[in-house]
Each structure stands twice: as C-alpha cells, then as structure tokens.
Amino acid sequence: MKMSVMNVGRRLIPTAAVTAVTALGLGTLSACSIDSAAAGNTDKFDVVASFYPLQFLAQQIGGNRVNVTSLTKPGQEPHDLEISARQTAQLQESDAVLYLKNLQPAVDDAVAQSEIGTKIDAASLTSLEKHGNEVGGHAAEHDGHENHELAGLDPHIWLDPVRYAQVAEGVGKAFEKADPDNAAVYKKNTAALVGKLDALNTRFKDGLANSRTKVFVTTHAAFGYLAERYGLTEEAINGLDPESEPSADRVKDLEKMAKADGVTTVFYETLVSDKTATTIASDSGLRTDVLDPVEGITSKSKGDDYFQVMGSNLKALQTALGAR
Fold first, then answer.
1. What distance in Å separates the CA atoms of residue 257 and residue 302, rounded to the nearest whole number?
2. How confident is the model at residue 316 (pLDDT cuts 50, 70, 90)?
3. Which residue has the higher pLDDT, 56 or 17?
C-alpha cells in the first residue's frame, strides 16, 4: 500500500470542504523529498507526506512498518513548493498521501488528480480558525484599521500540541484502517505520541503561566494557535504570508505596541529572511531571536526533531516574555 503527504504552503486560502479521511498507511519517515527517495513499491506501507510536521507524524505512528517520503526537501520553504512531474508520478505509486488542504494549490491539485485510495487531509482531523496579524489576548485593541488577512484559515495547527495530538489520533486511525495487519502497532505508537504531546502541552502551559508580558512579535503569523492556547498575544509583522512587506502604518503600530506592552524581542525564523525583523528591532531598541514554526529541520534548527525544536521555542518565549 502507499501513501503520500503533500506540502503545506504558507499562503492561506479560504478553506473548502476537507478531504474525507480514507484508509491510510504510512511509511518510514525520511527527510528526503520524493525526488531523492523511493516513494512507493516497497514491501512496507508507502506514505508520501507534504512537509515535515506531517512527515514526523507518519514516522512516529508508523515506525518500522511504513516507508515515508516528503515532498519538501530539508531547508526548502514549504509554502513555495511546486510539484514536479516525477513527484506526481511517484505519488501515484504510493499507498497513502498525508497533506494539509488549502495550503498549496499545486499539492491539492496533484492529490485530487491522483488515484490513491487513501487521501488524508490533516485539516479535517482538527479545527481551523481565522487568524490575522494579531491573535489572542487584547490584540484587537492595538489595530484600528481593517485586517484583510482574515480571508483564510490559519494552517499552523501543529504548533498547538493539543490540535497536533488530534491530528495524530486521526492519522493513527487511518493507518489502522488502511493497513489492518499492523493496526496494533499503529494504535500503540499513536497512544505514545499523544502522551508526549500532552506532556509538551503541560510544559508550555506551566512554563508560560506567569510572565512579565503576554505579547510577542513574530515575522509572520504562524503562532496564532499557540498564542491562544497559552493566553498570549501574537503580533505578526507580515501576517500569514511571510514574504509580504508590512505597511508603514503597521510598523508604527508595532513600535507603539512594543513600548506599551514591554516587548523585548522580535522573533524571526530560519527559512525566511530576517531583514524586516532586524530592521524593526533595531529601530525600536529590541533584541531578535528565533521562534521556529517547525516547518522543516535543517542544520540551523535548534533541535533534531519536532519536540526538541518546540522545547527551544518554549525557552525563547520564556526569556522574551520574562517568565517566572
């Protein structure tokens, strides 16, 4: 059997009906893209994942019973992914595909046109919300002008351990249905993963409960779910699209907010330029640091996997927010 996961893009598109979860199977997780690793026709359950967060789930749940390949190469900005003819062909050879619908039109099109029996849309396994430049807490108080970012749903569900655990449970059930011979293994591995995510949620909840400020500034609005989960306010420079440029009014709003709320740090991420964050931080006398959206693991990542990088994110937030 075979499965593939499509890469999740950064640009948000209004969410349409999500793909129904059908029988699913996952293959051993690999950091390689489909172009650099066998996508199907192995003696394991072959799964193609769109990008790292889904790849990681497949690896953790499938263990040595699956063969997992990713459409996104390490270090590649997942929102910019385009599907090659070879990847499209290899997709057809897989037992299952795991992707996040409405994030990357090219991926959605490839999945829709494929004849794979098991198509798993991660967005259908949890709830998505509309997020703009400002999310959580008293965000609305700072912004008096209309926010056009609210046209789509925020895809960054994996940055909320609770929602990520919900997706994991759905993927596990899909694996069990698609590959019943290994159902017991998938069930056991899913339970173990959900337990780890529950523990991570507790670490964030306890670690951010008491802090000097609840407001943090990021390059783009990737951390809205995390902010809402732990009672914080995310102020994003570029909104949901990390490649966009902030308006002069937005920059002024951020500088005013930073002073009012005791913000100390402007966060940027490893896969996009830190130019805008550095400029705003310099003009406002603030520090810069990395808050990683965990869309891929590279040599620049502060950790070797999802849990390690999220642990680094927690430490960075505690420092920036003055957690006690």
1. 29
2. very high
3. 56
* Residue 49 vs residues 221, 246, 272: alpha-carbon distances, Å: 23, 32, 22
Q: Which strand (E) or helix (H) includes residue 64?
A: none
Q: What angle do CA 290, 295, 297 make, to 5 degrees?
A: 75
Both tokens assigned to 54: 């889904």
Radius of gyration from C-alpha coordinates of the chain: 19
Q: Say how far apart CA 240 and CA 85 lie, in whole Å.
A: 29
229 sits in the region (left: phi over 0; alpha: psi -120 to 50; else beta) called alpha
Asked if 303 and 312 touch (Cβ cutoff 8 Å), the reply is yes
Q: Which amino acid is at 135?
A: V
Phi (first) and psi of residue 7, to 5 degrees = -70, 140
Cα–Cα distance between 12 and 220 in angstroms, integer?
12
Q: Is 266 helix (H, G, I), strand (E, B) or coil?
A: strand
User: Which residues 6+ apart lie within 8 Å of 64 measured at CB?
Assistant: 28, 44
CA 219/CA 228 separation, integer angstroms = 18
Q: What is the pTM of this model?
A: 0.81
Task: Locate all alpha helices (DSSP H) within the chain, ordered by sequence.
Answer: 52-62, 85-92, 105-113, 161-178, 183-207, 224-229, 248-261, 275-284, 306-321
